[in-house]
Amino acid sequence: MGLLPDQIPWWIAGPLLGLLVVGLFAVSNQPLGASGAYVQTMKTVRGDSDSVSWRVFYFVGIFIGGAVATILGPGVSIRTGYTALHAAGWSELAIVVVVLLGAIVMGYGARVAGGCTSGHGICGTAQRSPSSWAATATFMAAAVVVTFLLTSFTALGDISPAVPK
Amino acid sequence: MNLVGLLFGAMFGFVLAAGQLHDYDTIHATLRLESFYVFGLMGLAIGISLPLLWILERRQITTTFGGPLSLSRSKIEKHHIYGGALFGAGWSIAGTCPAPALAMLASGATYGAVAVVGLFIGLWIRDRQLEAANHAIREGDGERSTLPHTKTLGAR
Lengths: 165, 156
Prior knowledge:
The complex is a heterodimer of chains A (165) and B (156).
Chain A: H1 10-28, H2 35-46, H3 53-72, H4 83-87, H5 92-113, H6 119-126, H7 130-153
Chain B: H1 2-18, H2 24-31, H3 37-58, E1 62-63, E2 67-68, H4 78-94, H5 98-106, H6 112-132
Antiparallel strand pairs in B: 1-2
C-alpha cells in the first residue's frame, strides 16, 4: 500500500529490534530468538508434553507481522524469492534442492550452536554471553567465506545483488 | 503469555519484513561485503539492547511473567563454534535465516516454505541424534524458552 517504504533504513530497524529484545526480556525473561520457536513448534506438532505453547504463538506472530509489513509496504507479490539464483541460470529443481539443503544445514547448525542470528547474534550477545559472541563471530565469518566461494565458483558471481542503502 | 508471544512475534516479523531482511539480495549484499545493512542493523540492535539489559540486570527487576530477570551467560564450548560454522554456511547458501524465512513466505516468496521445511528437518535431525546418543537436549543462550523458575510459563 506504500504506507511504509519498501525498505526502512538499518539505523531505524536496528534500534527497533534492540528495543523488542529488551521488551521481551522485561516482560517474560526470554530471548527474542527464532530457532527456539521452531523447536517448540515442532514439539507441539509432535505432541510432546514439555512443549512451550507461547513460542508457537510467537512463531505464528512472526509470519503475521511479516505479512502486515509487506502489505503496508511494497505489497505481497507471489514469486520464488530467489531472483538471483534464477538469473544465475540455475534450474527450478537445483534452486529447491540447494535451498532445502542449505536450510537443513542451517537448522542443524543452529541446534548444535544453541541459537541463530537473532538468538545468539542479537539476544545472546546483548546478554553478554561468551558462547553467543563466539557463535556469532563464527557464523558471520563462515557466511562471508561461503558467500565468497559461491560468488567465486558459481555463476552467482556474475549477478550483482541490489545493494540496500 | 500466549498473547504476549503473538504480539512480540508479530512486531519482530514486522521489523524484519520492513527491513527486507527476508530478501536474498539484502543478505547477500552484506555477506559479499558490498553493503553495511545487516551488520549495521545487528550492531545497533546489540548497541541498544546490551546496555539496557545490563541496567535492568543491575536493578534486579522482576519480569511480568518470568520471575526475576536472569540473563544467561554460557562458557564457550566446541559445539558453539562448529554449530556456528554450519549455521553460517547454511545462512549464506539459503540466503535467509530462521525468522526471516517465515517473513519471506509471508511476503509471497514461495520458496520461503522450502527454507522453513529445511530448517525443521535440520533441527529434527539434531534432536534425534542427541536422543539416540541418550544425551540431554540443552537449550542454548539464544533459544531458551523455559527457565527453572518459569516451568509453568507455557501453561499460562
